[in-house]
Amino acid sequence: MLSDREKADFREELIRSMKTFRASNADSFLTLADWLPRYQRT
User: What are the protein's UniProt keywords (predicted)?
Assistant: First the structure.
């Protein structure tokens, strides 16, 4: 289970990534795919 702090960090990073890669949805999904395993592992 993620702590509230981890959830907040993940959400901020995801939003930042989505803004950065807004021009390409594929890039956004790739970024999400990179982040999810890292957070699920903890």
Answer: Plasmid
Report which of 14, 19, 4 is spatially closest to residue 38, judged by C-alpha positions: 14
Query: Domains in the chain: how many in total?
Result: 1
| Angstrom distances, CA of residue 36 to CA of 4, 11, 16 | 16, 11, 15
Domain of residue 24 covers 4-41
Global pTM reads 0.42
Mean pLDDT by 10 residues, the chain (42 residues): 85 80 61 71 60
